[in-house]
TrEMBL record:
D-isomer specific 2-hydroxyacid dehydrogenase NAD-binding domain residues: 102-276
Protein name as catalogued: D-2-hydroxyacid dehydrogenase
Location of the D-isomer specific 2-hydroxyacid dehydrogenase catalytic domain: 10-302
Family named by the database record: Belongs to the D-isomer specific 2-hydroxyacid dehydrogenase family.
Pfam families the record matches: 2-Hacid_dh, 2-Hacid_dh_C
Family annotation (InterPro entries): D-isomer_2_OHA_DH_cat_dom, D-isomer_DH_NAD-bd, NAD(P)-bd_dom_sf
Keywords: NAD, Oxidoreductase
Species of origin: Bhargavaea changchunensis
Keyword Membrane listed: no
Length: 315
């Protein structure tokens, strides 16, 4: 049985897989034009290189393992028609992303940009006035694995956490919950608003002018989910109007962010080039999900594989 990797992993990872699964033929660091596409039973990919042409050629394909959480760039409708199981690595981003978000929140609250700017000018001034996280409120759009982890960290700082999902159902490390329908009413109370929502038909364009206008003029907005949560021009207009006060953005409508995009030059915006999930442990964590699933697959228990993706929902 052929298992085709469409990206590079380290040599010790290759050796580990070959040792753990001696009956499996692994093909590492291949491209979509490789003839092995036609014979491979399993394809391991980041998702962006799987299109309908690849699916047409993959005559023996039985399972797609996506080493990413997002699958919105894949032809999910066609995959559903072919009835090919898809799994992803949902949850492995929670530690690096939550730590990054917390770092940005603390940097904003403690005015660290001002501290760094003063150092550049060799200025000794003690008029910088930061604020505390204690007793503040944070709204987390998408309180799943990543949202729950940032909620846990914020609670340790004495922040009251509010989760927001489609139904308002309870979520771990959230003190209170609101549904998408109750979002507009909840926003005026929030000191920090964080989105880690995936891209789905329900989340595209979820935030509009009314939502940003409802935010505090001291609120920090962070988007670490997907760039189609709002129209970028609407966010820019909102930031120019002072609601929210500032934004930290890791995702954008167009990536890479064009050099002429106004967000680069806005003093109340931090542009992060979609790097919040980067970690030296990324592949290790991906394989920790892939290997048990591969064992289940080989044992004829594909229905028990973790992190199955619903192609119709997109997650």
């Amino acid at each position: 049985m052929d298992v085709l990797f469409l990206f590079r992993i380290r040599e010790h990872h290759e050796e580990m897989l070959e040792k753990e699964f001696p009956g499996v033929h692994f093909l590492f660091d291949r491209k979509t034009d490789d003839p092995a596409i036609e014979t491979s039973e399993i394809i391991v990919t980041y998702g962006v290189d799987i299109d309908e042409n690849v699916l047409d050629r993959a005559k023996n394909l039985k399972w797609i393992m996506v080493a990413s959480a997002g699958v919105e760039q894949m032809p999910l409708g066609r995959i559903a028609e072919m009835d090919i199981p898809v799994t992803n690595v949902r949850g492995i981003h929670k530690t690096p992303m939550a730590e990054t978000m917390l770092a940005h929140i603390l940097a904003y609250k403690k005015k660290l940009r001002d501290v760094y700017d003063q150092q550049e000018r060799s200025e000794w001034k003690q008029k910088i006035r930061g604020t505390e996280l204690l007793d503040s409120k944070a709204l987390i759009l998408g309180p799943g694995a990543i949202g729950g982890e940032v909620g846990r960290l914020l609670q340790a700082f004495g922040v009251r956490t509010f989760g927001c999902n489609r139904s308002g159902r309870p979520a771990e490390y959230m003190d209170e919950m609101v549904s998408f329908d109750g979002l507009l009413e909840a926003l005026p109370e929030m000191d920090t608003v964080i989105s880690v929502l995936p891209s789905t038909p329900e989340t595209k364009g979820l935030l509009g002018r009314d939502h940003f206008a409802a935010m505090k003029d001291t609120a920090l907005f962070l988007n670490f989910g997907r760039g189609d949560l709002y129209e970028e021009k609407v966010l820019i207009e909102a930031l120019e109007n002072g609601r929210p006060a500032a934004a930290v953005l890791d995702v954008f409508e167009t990536e890479p962010l064009p050099a002429d995009n106004p967000l680069w030059k806005m003093e109340n915006v931090t542009v992060s080039p979609h790097i919040s999930s980067h970690s030296g442990k990324y592949i290790d964590r991906s394989l920790e999900i892939f290997m048990p699933n591969l064992r289940a697959y080989l044992e004829g228990k594909a229905d028990q594989m973790e992190n199955r993706v619903d192609p119709e929902r997109g997650y």
